[in-house]
């Protein structure tokens, strides 16, 4: 049944759009927007300033000799420019975001409203502690629930993002080894771990030893034991991501943890987000006492919270004393914030300070609001929905797209490879660009590196069945188009975006970062009618 077209057409259609050109270059409400330098005026300013009296500059040879060349616009012109630019961005508020990224996910508006409350949003890190007792109590309650959900003994809230959290966890491990008179130099990193893991270990001076994945995408316990044996007595720990970047749960995690602990090393369990975990598994469980374990980013807002970032790290009892400054402790009158080394008590051995202040207060509020609004049963359902949605996409596409590790249950994200595009003349990048024409941001491309032409999709717990059905149907249409040999649909895509495909290699190697005023010869007069 078609829509009622009486009185006006519901759509101009591709033919009408191609045939109808406009004087402005705009297409209805899709505005063509030049650079701000091109619409502004360099010969005037947006404000009137009196000529300054004679003065002696303190800048010496550094004083500007030329015009600043900032464009002048009226307030409405400036506002319109940035609003029009914003409409060219793809956002979670405009459509499904299949990208396997922690930050590109929906955040309930309740959390946003709570984070903007004056008592949290307007405080300053240099305020006296007596004036921010409510904020300290909130951080204390958040810490309590993060430790309860993970079974850990302490939590560091100060890290600002996932990679910062990794650094925090590994610095605590390094401090613990040195406190025990050891200085091992090797960190094991599975190939299926997060890409920042080896960089974090290398930054701290460790030698990174890669652990290969099995054919099913998981870490082989025997391979871990072999690497431990090769570096006998010199292994500081392992940085293992679970679920790993292939979207697969590491089924041998207990045995791996036992092997690491037997080598007097520490088990760092990485994870981009906690929603696939609550009430399904306890991160402390694989680490039998004395539990030399750490885990980063357990904060419950969906997929990391949307930013600004926060990467809390929960620590086992053996690593808890090394939590960085500033940290919270339970005092006689409630939670206390320890900000300097002078406030450290006996038994507390912070490895130092990672950041000037405690953390991102807005993220703490979002996290606790999320936990309180969902409750234990709601967090469990969010975990189940994240896994269900990823598997719904997997089942909807597995007959047309290729699964590198076969048709098996995935966790919160599903991984495809590009073998289904073989002999079609369509590359992985072509396929991704064609998704833009269909109104979707591409999924994560070419990562994880253990899979050739990887396509990693993370639908999250927030998407409805209807939105997933449309997404799956769209990808099925693209796949069938590629297999039919309709390469033109892909080779020049995106065709309908505000700008066409860039030469991304050239843009990365020779970026143009400064606008240059065109010369007089470059400005061509308009052709006469």
UniProtKB/TrEMBL annotation:
Amino acid composition bias (Basic and acidic residues), ranges on this chain: 507-519
Location of region: Disordered: 1-20, 277-315, 507-529
The UniProt record lists the keyword Nucleotidyltransferase: no
Reaction catalysed by this enzyme: N(6)-[(R)-lipoyl]-L-lysyl-[glycine-cleavage complex H protein] + glycine + H(+) = N(6)-[(R)-S(8)-aminomethyldihydrolipoyl]-L-lysyl-[glycine-cleavage complex H protein] + CO2
Residues in coiled coil: none
Glycine dehydrogenase C-terminal domain boundaries: 382-481
GO CC field: cytosol; glycine cleavage complex
Domain (Aminotransferase class V) ranges: 186-272
Record-level Gene Ontology MF annotations: glycine binding; glycine dehydrogenase (decarboxylating) activity; pyridoxal phosphate binding; transaminase activity
UniProt xrefs under Gene3D superfamilies: 6.20.440.10, Aspartate Aminotransferase, domain 1, Type I PLP-dependent aspartate aminotransferase-like (Major domain)
Keyword list, A-Z: Aminotransferase, Oxidoreductase, Pyridoxal phosphate, Transferase
EC number: 1.4.4.2
Enzymatic class: oxidoreductase
Keyword Transit peptide: no
Gene Ontology biological process terms from the UniProt entry: glycine decarboxylation via glycine cleavage system
NCBIfam families: PRK04366.1 (NF003346)
Purpose: The glycine cleavage system catalyzes the degradation of glycine. The P protein binds the alpha-amino group of glycine through its pyridoxal phosphate cofactor; CO(2) is released and the remaining methylamine moiety is then transferred to the lipoamide cofactor of the H protein.
Protein name: glycine dehydrogenase (aminomethyl-transferring)
Origin species: Stappia sediminis
Record lineage: Bacteria, Pseudomonadati, Pseudomonadota, Alphaproteobacteria, Hyphomicrobiales
């Amino acid at each position: 049944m078609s829509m009622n077209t009486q009185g006006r057409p519901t759509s101009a259609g591709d033919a009408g759009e191609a045939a109808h050109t406009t004087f402005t270059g705009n297409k209805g409400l899709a505005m063509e927007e030049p650079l701000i330098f091109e619409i502004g005026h360099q010969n005037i300013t947006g404000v009137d300033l009196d000529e300054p009296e004679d003065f002696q500059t303190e800048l010496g040879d550094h004083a500007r000799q030329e015009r600043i060349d900032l464009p002048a616009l009226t307030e409405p012109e400036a506002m319109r420019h940035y609003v029009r630019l914003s409409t060219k961005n793809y956002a979670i508020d405009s459509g499904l975001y299949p990208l396997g990224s922690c930050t590109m996910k929906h955040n309930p508006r309740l959390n946003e409203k709570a984070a903007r409350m004056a008592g949290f949003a307007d405080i300053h890190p240099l305020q006296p502690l007596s004036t921010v007792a409510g904020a300290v109590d909130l951080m204390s309650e958040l810490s309590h629930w993060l430790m309860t959900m993970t079974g850990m003994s302490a939590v560091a809230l100060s890290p600002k993002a996932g990679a910062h959290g990794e650094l925090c966890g590994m610095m605590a491990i390094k401090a613990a080894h040195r406190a025990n008179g050891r200085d091992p130099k090797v960190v094991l990193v599975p190939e299926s771990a997060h890409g920042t893991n080896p960089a974090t270990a290398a930054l701290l001076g460790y030698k990174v030893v890669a652990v290969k994945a099995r054919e099913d995408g998981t870490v082989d316990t025997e391979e871990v034991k072999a690497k431990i044996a090769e570096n006998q007595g010199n292994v500081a720990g392992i940085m293992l991501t679970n679920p790993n970047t292939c979207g697969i749960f590491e089924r041998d995690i207990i045995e791996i943890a036992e092997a690491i602990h037997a080598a007097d090393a520490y088990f760092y369990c990485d994870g981009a987000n906690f929603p696939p975990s609550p009430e399904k598994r306890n991160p402390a469980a694989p680490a039998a006492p004395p539990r030399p374990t750490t885990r980063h980013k357990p904060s419950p807002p969906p997929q990391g919270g949307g930013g600004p970032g926060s990467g809390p790290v929960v620590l086992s009892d053996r690593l808890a004393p090394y939590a960085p400054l500033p940290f919270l402790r339970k005092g006689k009158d409630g939670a206390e914030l320890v900000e300097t080394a002078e406030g450290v008590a006996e038994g507390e051995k912070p490895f130092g300070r990672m950041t000037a202040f405690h953390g991102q207060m807005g993220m703490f509020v979002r996290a606790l609001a999320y936990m309180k609004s969902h409750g234990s049963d709601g967090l469990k359902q969010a975990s189940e929905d994240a896994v269900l949605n990823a598997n719904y996409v997997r089942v909807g596409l597995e007959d047309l797209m290729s699964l590198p590790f076969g048709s098996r249950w995935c966790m919160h994200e599903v991984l495809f490879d590009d073998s289904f595009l073989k002999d079609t003349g369509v590359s992985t990048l072509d396929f991704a660009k064609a998704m833009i024409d269909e109104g979707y941001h591409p999924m994560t491309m070419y990562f994880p590196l253990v899979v050739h032409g990887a396509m990693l999709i993370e639908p999250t717990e927030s998407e409805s069945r209807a939105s997933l059905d449309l997404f799956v149907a769209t990808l099925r249409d693209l796949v069938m188009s590629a297999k039919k040999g309709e390469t033109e649909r892909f080779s020049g895509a995106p065709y309908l975006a505000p700008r066409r495909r860039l030469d991304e290699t050239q843009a990365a190697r020779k970026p143009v970062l400064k606008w240059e005023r065109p010369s007089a010869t470059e400005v061509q007069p308009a052709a006469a009618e």
